[in-house]
Specification:
This protein is of the alpha+beta class. It has 26 helices and 17 strands.
C-alpha cells in the first residue's frame, strides 16, 4: 500500500523534479517507509512507500523494468502475484525482488492492459512506456484504491490523493458546484467528479491511456471490467451453493493473509468481520483484533444498540484473539473533524469519523488490517432498500422508485431552497439523470422482480460500496495502515454476482405477493431493517460463528449522532452552522439551512445525516477553498 503521483506536460515542456517531490511530500502519510521520484523530459513519476511485501530496497519505486523500457508507480496488493510470477518466469522473465510490484511491472509488459483482468487484488497504478511515449493509469475492478487525474491546459497530473495535485504551481482551485449538488442529493458522488473542479476520480474498472508520441498528447479512457449481477439459467441447489461459498470464502481470506509485516482484523459484533476473523485466526494464533464502541450515556432509542463492544469481546474470546478496543464520546467528532476533512478531501457516504478512530487504533499495533466491507453489497444485506423497486413495471418506474429513496439528505424542493444563492449555476443538473446514468451500459430490459433486485445490487456496488472504499482508503492511509477487503476477491465476487436472488433474500416472494394485493401496511413492514438479507452467507457462516450472530439484524458502524447533535454536541453544531460567516453560506441559503438544522435540534425530524454533511462541507471548505 502506497501513494503514487505524477505530471505530464502535453506540450513537451520538461517536468521539474521538485514538482514531483512536492506531490509525494503531500501524501507522505501514505508511505512513511520510503520515497522516490523519476523524471525524464516532459514526464515525472513519484511514489511513497508503505512496505508490506518484500521490505528490501529491491522493491522500491518508481520501479524500472530490467530493459529500462517501463517505469512503474504502483499502489495496492495483488494476492495472486506468485501464480503470475511463476507464469511470467515460464515466459522468460526474471525478477530482482520478491515484491508483487515487480510482477505487476512484468505482467503489464507482457500482456498490456489485458493484465489488469489477471490481477486479483486492489490497485491504482501508473506505467510509463519510454519507447511508445505513453502513460497508462488504471484502477482495480472495484475501486478499492483511488486514483485522481486533473488536466488544465497542457498540464496533466495524477495522484492517489487530490492534495498532491493541488501542490502543482499555477493550478486553479475552484469549487465544483455541480458535484456539491450531487453530494447533497445522494450524500455521495456517483459520477467521476470531485468537489474540486477539473480534478476527476478515474472510475473503478477503468484505465486511461495518454499518448505522447505526438504533441499535444491524446487522452482516452476505457472500461475494462464491470459488475454483472444476473440470475443463473439453471435451478439452484442451495446445499451446493453454500458449500462452494464456503470454499471460496476460505480461499479469499487465506489469499489476503500474505504479508511480511504483522496483520490484524477489525472485529465488530457482526458476522462479516467475525467470519473473516475466524478464518484468519486459524493461521495467525493470537491475531490482533480491533473494535470501536460508543459512550451511550446520552443516547436513546435505536442508538442504544450501537455499541458492539460486548459482542465483539465474545467473539474475540471464541477465536482467542488479542483484542483492543476504544470508546468514542461526543467530543471526539469535534476533535478529529479538521484532520478528518483534510484526509478525506471531500465528504462521501455517511458519518466516517468512527472509521478514522478505528484505523488509528489498529495502526498502533499492526500495519495491515482485514475489513468486512463488501459482504452486504454482494449478498443483499439491505433488503428494505431493494424491495422498493422490486415490483416496478419497467426500468423508468424502477428509477423513480429507487431514486426517491436515495435522496438521503433532503428532497428536491429543499435542495433548491438550500442552493438558492447559486441555483442558476446548477439548475441544468438533473440529479435523476445522474442516478439513471449509473446504468448507462447496462441491459435495462427488466421483467421479473429478481431482475430489479439485481439492478439494485449493481447500483449499490457501483455507488454506495465504491464510496465506502474511497473513505476506507483515505482513513486507513491517514494512519499509514493498509486495509484489505477479502469479500472483494475476484472469484468470490464472480460467485456472488451469479448467485440467485432467492438464496440472498428470504422474503422476496412474500413482498411480491403483498404488493400485488396493495396492502400497504404489510408492504411497509418489508421496508424496515431486518435479518432478511444475506441468507446464503448466514448459512455458510454458521460453520464459524454462533447462530445468535448469524441471525442478527444488519447494523452499520454508526455513532449515536442523532442524540449527540441535539445534546452533548449541540454547542458545536450551533457554533459552526449558525455562524453567518461560515464558508458554506457562499453557496447555501442560510435561512433554509438553519431551519433544517433546527428541525433536528428541536426533536422534530432526525436530520443527523444532513448535519454531518453540512459540518463536513464546512470543514472541507476551510481546508481546500480558503485560499482560492
Amino acid at each position: 500500500m502506497c501513494g503514487i503521483a505524477g505530471v505530464l506536460h502535453l506540450d513537451g515542456r520538461p517536468v521539474v523534479k521538485e514538482t514531483i517531490k512536492r506531490m509525494t511530500d503531500a501524501i507522505a502519510h501514505r508511505g512513511p517507509d520510503g520515497e522516490g521520484q523519476w523524471v525524464e523530459n516532459n514526464v515525472g513519476v513519484g511514489h511513497r512507500r508503505l512496505a508490506i511485501i518484500d521490505l528490501s530496497d529491491a522493491a522500491r519505486q518508481p520501479m524500472i523494468s530490467i530493459e529500462h523500457r517501463y517505469v512503474l508507480s504502483f499502489n495496492g496488493e495483488i494476492y495472486n502475484f506468485m501464480d503470475l510470477r511463476t507464469e511470467l518466469e515460464g515466459l522468460g522473465y526474471w525478477f530482482r525482488s520478491q515484491s508483487d510490484s515487480e510482477v505487476v511491472l512484468n505482467a503489464l509488459a507482457e500482456w498490456g492492459t489485458d493484465a489488469l483482468l489477471r490481477f486479483n487484488g486492489m490497485f491504482a497504478l501508473a506505467l510509463w512506456d519510454r519507447k511508445e511515449k505513453s502513460m497508462l493509469l488504471a484502477r482495480d475492478r472495484y475501486g478499492i484504491k483511488p486514483l485522481y487525474m486533473c488536466q488544465q491546459g497542457t498540464v496533466l497530473a495524477f495522484a492517489s490523493e487530490q492534495k498532491a495535485i493541488q501542490t502543482i504551481p499555477g493550478l486553479r482551485i475552484e469549487l465544483d458546484k455541480e458535484a456539491l449538488l450531487e453530494y447533497f442529493t445522494f450524500q455521495n458522488i456517483f459520477t467521476d467528479r470531485t468537489l474540486l473542479k477539473d480534478i476527476r476520480l478515474i472510475p473503478a474498472g477503468h484505465f486511461v491511456k495518454i499518448e505522447l508520441s505526438e504533441l499535444p498528447g491524446a487522452v482516452n479512457q476505457h472500461r475494462y471490467w464491470d459488475y454483472h449481477f444476473k440470475e443463473p439459467s439453471h435451478s439452484a441447489d442451495e446445499r451446493e451453493y453454500v458449500e462452494e461459498l464456503d470454499r471460496l470464502f476460505n480461499q479469499a481470506v487465506n489469499r489476503q493473509l500474505v504479508s511480511d509485516v504483522e496483520l490484524g482484523s477489525f472485529l465488530s459484533g457482526g458476522m462479516d468481520s467475525g467470519s473473516i476473523t475466524a478464518i484468519a485466526a486459524r493461521s495467525n494464533p493470537y491475531l490482533k483484533t480491533f473494535t470501536c464502541g460508543f459512550d451511550l450515556s446520552s443516547a436513546s432509542g435505536i442508538e442504544l444498540a450501537f455499541d458492539e463492544r460486548t459482542k465483539a469481546e465474545a467473539m474475540s474470546a471464541l477465536f482467542r484473539t488479542e483484542h483492543y478496543e476504544m470508546v468514542l464520546k461526543a467530543g471526539d467528532m469535534e476533535r478529529c473533524l479538521p484532520k478528518l476533512a483534510w484526509h478525506l478531501e471531500e465528504p462521501r457516504v455517511g458519518q466516517s469519523y468512527p472509521n478514522y478512530y478505528a484505523a488509528q487504533l489498529a495502526s498502533k499495533f499492526v500495519k495491515v488490517v482485514l475489513s468486512g466491507t463488501g459482504g452486504d453489497e454482494l449478498f443483499g444485506g439491505y433488503p428494505w432498500r431493494y424491495y422498493r423497486g422490486a415490483n416496478s413495471q419497467d426500468f423508468e418506474e424502477y428509477i423513480d422508485n429507487y431514486y426517491l429513496y436515495w435522496q438521503r439528505l433532503v428532497d428536491n424542493t429543499q435542495i433548491k431552497k438550500m442552493f438558492a444563492p447559486i441555483w442558476s449555476d446548477v439548475s441544468h443538473v438533473w440529479t435523476r439523470d445522474i442516478f439513471r446514468d449509473v446504468y448507462e451500459t447496462h441491459d435495462n430490459a427488466l421483467e421479473r422482480p429478481e431482475d430489479f433486485i439485481n439492478h439494485s445490487l449493481y447500483f449499490e456496488a457501483k455507488t454506495f460500496l465504491h464510496g465506502l472504499f474511497v473513505v476506507d482508503d483515505k482513513l486507513s492511509m491517514a494512519h499509514s495502515l493498509e486495509s484489505r477487503v477479502p469479500f472483494m476477491d475476484n472469484d468470490l465476487v464472480d460467485f456472488a454476482m451469479a448467485c440467485p436472488v432467492d438464496l440472498k433474500l428470504n422474503n422476496l416472494k412474500e413482498v411480491v405477493r403483498v404488493n400485488e394485493n396493495n396492502t400497504s401496511d404489510k408492504v411497509n413492514a418489508y421496508f424496515q431493517r431486518s435479518n432478511d438479507g444475506k441468507q446464503i452467507l448466514r448459512s455458510m457462516m454458521r460453520n464459524y460463528i454462533p447462530d445468535n450472530v448469524t441471525e442478527r439484524m444488519k447494523q452499520g458502524f454508526s455513532s449515536p449522532d442523532a442524540s449527540w447533535f441535539k445534546g452533548d454536541s449541540i454547542d458545536f453544531v450551533k457554533r459552526v452552522l449558525f455562524n453567518g460567516n461560515a464558508a458554506i453560506y457562499d453557496v447555501f441559503d442560510r435561512t433554509t439551512v438553519e431551519s433544517l438544522v433546527m428541525d433536528h435540534l428541536s426533536g422534530k425530524t432526525n436530520r443527523r445525516l444532513l448535519i454531518w454533511s453540512l459540518l463536513s462541507a464546512e470543514a472541507f471548505m476551510d481546508d481546500f477553498m480558503s485560499s482560492s
